[in-house]
Amino acid sequence: MNPLIAGVSTDVTPYRNRYPDGLPVGNLWVDCTEMAPVVFPFDGSVIAQSPVGHVDHALTALSASEDIKGEVAALSAGRKRAVLLAVRDALAERQAAFEELLVLETGKPLVDCRTEVARTLTTWAAAAEAVAHTHGETVPLDLQPAGEGMIGYWTRRPAGIVIAIAGFNYPLLLASHKIAPAIAAGCPVIVKPAPNTPLATLWAVHLIRTVLAAHGISESAVQLVTGGVDVGEALVADPRATVVSFTGSAAVGHRIAKAAAPRKVVLELGSNTGLIVAADAVVSEAVDAVVRGGFYANGQACISVQRVILVESIADEFQHGLLERLNEVVSGDPREESTRLAPVINTGSAQRITGWIDDAVHRGARVLAGGSARGAAMDPTVLTDVPQDADLWCEEIFGPVVCLHRVRDVGAAIQLVNRSRYGLQAAIYTKSLESAFAAVNELDVGGVVVNEIPGFRSDIMPYGGVKDSGIGREGPRYAIEEFTVTRMAMIRP
After folding, report:
1. Rounded to two decimals, what is the model's pTM?
2. Within 400-490, where are the H helices?
């Protein structure tokens, strides 16, 4: 076992593993001959060398899951609940250390990493609660003459092996939203973290496996394999994998869905989130929503504010108020308490974002603030008059950029939000119940938020999108349903 990391100082401390070397495959940690650097996005320094898995590791993990899926499926509700609560406690005991590690590997401000860990703890506790509600119901088979005298009921049964592929932006939370429901459902799970941010997930999986062993359960119930596209393809396409749960880009999600067919996929694929500000909105509150919701996690959140659609009568007031408050989005070292915006994950991402900005400006958009990059660092950026067919408007920016657009009324705003291939969440600021319910009923998205940022997410609610934002729902109770199948019993006594 390698030594624990010392406290994070103003200089990056080389990360020391908090878990054995190699990868947690089967009941052991297997050796890896290849390592890859994990880089601190703020200054490019290397904080650790992470093991790189290969296809053989993936296939070994699948075989181990296959061997123990019956054991995991047979776990009682009480044992599953006990494990989930014990994992929650193990994570909570190390909360500050996880926060520091997440800052180093994701580059997100400390305030956002604290939020991620707190939400992770809620997710594990919610999964433990949901175990008691995973049940079926009776069916009146005697509704038809042939069923007279028969008893019918259905139950939920574990679907089988879950493949959990998480994004780089919230590595601990996104993995937990897959691992915890898989345990609750009685499914073995194989996790593949994003190559840029594997460390917190590796450590969490070690803690989970330690808890499993302490409860007399095979550590093979939760495994982790790192690696490239070939590893992901091997996990997804293997017929032993029953459910694939993926968080990431739409392009990759589409490929996963094809490779996994006809088996089940749960896809959370991002969005170009819209926020509507109605004529009767409290404009200062809507401005505050964009300041809070447009730049958190360095803009690298699926439901951060991207498109702000303003009813014409309040547009000037909103724009002036937003530009006045941008100085509150303090850029700097993500380890500092005051920082609200730090560099994006790497320079390639920044170059893509600034390329989209340049293209939009060339086609008539105006930059009101920010707009350029220094390496991976960007200031909070606001544009207006962005063409509706520009990537900056149509695609997911995944950076600290907000686009403003003016319309005549709420009806036109709803139509504009819906003219998108995405549909994860959207929001409206209004004092009118009529406008609020119009948004709730007419916006073609998975979730509608009224008078709060569109990035609001409770970890117990059903979360997911429509159209190219994906299929299926997360949130422990709802993910358990995704990871189980109904089994019908029809009995003639």
Report:
1. 0.95
2. 410-418, 433-442, 476-482
